[in-house]
Amino acid sequence: MIVTVKKRDGREMPFNIEKISAAIEKAFRASGELDEQIKASQDQLNLLGNDDVLSSTALQVAASAVGLLEAEGKVKPEIEEIQDAVEKALTEGGYADTAKSYILYRAERTRIREVNTRLMHTLRDITFSSAKESDLKRENANIDGDTAMGTMLKYGSESAKHFYTMMMLKPEHSRAHSEGDIHIHDLDFYSLTMTCCQIDLKKLFKGGFNTGHGHLREPKDIRSYAALAAIAIQSNQNDQHGGQSIPNFDYAMADGVRITYRKAYLSNMVKALILLTGKTEEEIQPVVKKLHAEMAEMGMVATLVPNEKFVEAEARELSKVYDTEIVMKAQKFAEKMAYEETDKTTFQAMEAFVHNLNSMHSRAGAQTPFSSINYGMCTEPEARMVMRNLLLTTDEGLGGGETAIFPIQIFRVKEGISLNPGDPNYDLFKLACKVSAKRLFPNFSFQDAPYNLQYYKPGHPETEISYMGCRTRVIGNNYDPTREISFGRGNLSFTSINLPRIAIKMKSVDLFFKELDRMLQLVSDQLMERFAVQSRRKVKNFPFLMGQGVWIDSEKLGWEDTVGEVIKHGTLSIGFIGLAETLVALTGKHHGESEASQELGLKIIGHMREFCDKESKRLGLNFSLLATPAEGLSGRFVRMDKKKFGIIPGVTDRDYYTNSFHVPVYYKISAFKKLSLEAPYHALTNAGHISYVELDGDPTQNLDAFEKIVHHMAKVGIGYGSINHPVDRDPVCGFVGVIGDCCPRCGRSEGHAISEAKIEELRKLYPGMPAFKGIR
Amino acid sequence: MSEKELSKYGEGVGFERIRRITGYLVGTIDRFNNAKRAEVNDRVKHGV
Ligand SMILES: [Zn+2]
Fold this sequence. Notes:
A: alpha/beta; seven-stranded mixed sheet; four-stranded mixed sheet; 24 helices; B: alpha+beta; two-stranded antiparallel sheet; 2 strands
């Protein structure tokens, strides 16, 4: 007799025939095979008593299954064996349809069990392995997977992905995602948030704002401007799953410099008059303050570059009280001192801003906000002071001389503004090149690239091209062509297509395009599904982004309103990865090696862009084509394709697919040729793009070459680009530069110790050396 | 801090190697996922 059963995990449990019959009942209900009998028995007013047809038949089948097991001599049957016996009993009892339902039921249970097991495995991996061993924990390099909060985030993220895959995605989208035909980015935030936003600081600062933890007043000097800028980024980061960017850092911070200068001028004027007249502060301060206030009402204020109207009026009025010569002297003194003080304060403000963005926490402390700032076009002296000091502090590095990781700085380049000698911001462009040659930032964006220039209206900073640091770009607006701006807008979600797989599967170019079309449509449908979910969210779900009016037009909505209408200004982006491998699979050569491949590459990406434009028209929304950043994705697709198709040289033989439309990183090619080949793809990928080249050695020793490359980018039509070079640092002695096997400053090799005496000796030579202590 | 620790000034401390991943920077290669690490290793320099 059967007393116990063996469960899947090996444990023995008391045998319970009712559990078996309950499963069989479900199968009968699903098949409907007993419906007639049940009806008949109900018509007979339940003559069978409590023992209704369904449960009695199920119990009968269960009993015969048990009989089958016992006949085989099974005393402690396993679950699988019991289920086999039930299938057999059903078939032998003449219930073919129910047997089928039972098999389906078994399969479904197995699937759920597998998914749950996979989730449990994932959670176990997160719990017990360190980031060093676990690729999963290093999926995103700027999140520390080893911290408690980083781990907690990962639990949530992985569980959410499982939930959405099982319960919310359409089966065809879910399948395409899990099989690696497509990749739905930020799936863990599927029902919660949109990707990113360009925060218009000028608008946000007007009248102050509320972070959700209290109201912050309109800032009153450059220091508070910079501090609030960091807080705005931090607050908004919690309402979105992507990065945060400021499109008008130069224009917005210039306002802070103006106020700081005015205050500094006033206080220095008072100081000078005290000294020169011998009168007391109590006598002088009220006079000057009152005068400045009255003049301000008439639109006359002290400015960084002194303006005649103010200077003359002030001199005239003060001369009524004090000696004219003294007034003139005091003015000169105040101008000079106010300038110097403002400059110093601005430097400190920028230093603190960068420091803040590298140390402040968001998302429960697991990461610093992904922040970007765009600047370069404003030529006003106050804005130039901001940019110069920002670049200078970036050049200096953080406290110990470390290179700042955030914010991503993007310097806008434009002819007549900054690109060429004689341009008003050319000096800043030169400085930007110098700093970037040392610190990798700023990156450069190109306002004159035709697809950027077409939106640009001089005097309207909102029409300048803005990039989200990692590359996202939002400017065109099919939903509302009168609002072709970057301010207050961003990406809603994006999904990438595994291009190399289509090429491997289809082999011929014709079939490739057919399958590509199918995939594009699938992704478009999936983006629309997600958009519908996002549209139902309410303002109160985004207390900062929508509640504080950061997102375009959200200030017109109430707390309980849904955001569906205003997020139509955002973009739905279709991304791709591995154009190089795709071309190799189709033609044997990538676009770095063959002109024909380049032509085909442009045809493929051009086709994808056309599709996006068509969908935009059809749906009245903003579909755009993205050269996907692909951090976590770079290995995912190729891992799956390797399993599916084996190692194909030049296609699946590495651990990563090449980023977007890039010429492969391993291919030897000149910087100029690489940029020329990649530029035409920038014109097509309207959701964002970036190109970079790798320089050897220390480019600070060859700034001309550095600048030449940036000029070349501008010439060939790159939209957003940067120059990579090794930036190494020895935390022990503080050396920053290129480090091979040995540190050029202290001579130690990686992981090795140096003596304390040596450190002391070095400190004499390099007084700025960080105070690194002991073992880390 | 003990005498012994001070004498090991820098022992076990690696060099930081900052690299650009997708547009942003990453403080050290240890944080890269396997695929990105492979890509960084494969990168060749471009002549000017
Ligand atoms: Zn060193």
